[in-house]
Amino acid sequence: MCDHTTGSTAPERQWVNVYEVSLAYGGPEEGGWYYDIGTPLASVPFQTDTERSEIEAHLRRMYPDIGKKSTRHRVNGPSDIELSVEDHMGESYPTTRPHYE
To answer: In this structure, what DSSP letter does residue 93 have?
Structure first.
């Protein structure tokens, strides 16, 4: 995005995303394998570092468990809440079920 008055390039929009991350069973190969499933809980756009800091602080108040690692080692066990700064709005992941190689 170009600012035509100054000729400078404006920063691209980024997003502060909050995800609930849980464990899913992948299959029985090699004694069983698992993978993470992320579900977006919040997604807020920003363009400046100041905005990002304010948004992160607000989201940490809304989701006080951000960054507190559970003992996520069971499919029906507790989930983690993770904050991530990304170039896109929060999306569920993975988009396709992984396969064992």
So the answer is: B
Average pLDDT across the chain, whole number: 86
CB atoms within 10 A of CB 45: 13
Residue 78 lies in a domain: yes
Which residue range is the domain that position 31 belongs to? 14-86
Number of domain units in the chain: 1
This prediction has a pTM of: 0.81
Q: How far apart are alpha carbons 55 and 48 in whole angstroms? A: 11
The verdict on whether omega for the bond into residue 94 sits within 30 degrees of 0, i.e. cis, is: yes
Residues 52 and 35: beta-carbon distance below 8 Å: no
The answer to whether 19 and 38 have CB atoms below 8 angstroms apart is yes
- Give a yes or no: residue 65 inside a domain: yes
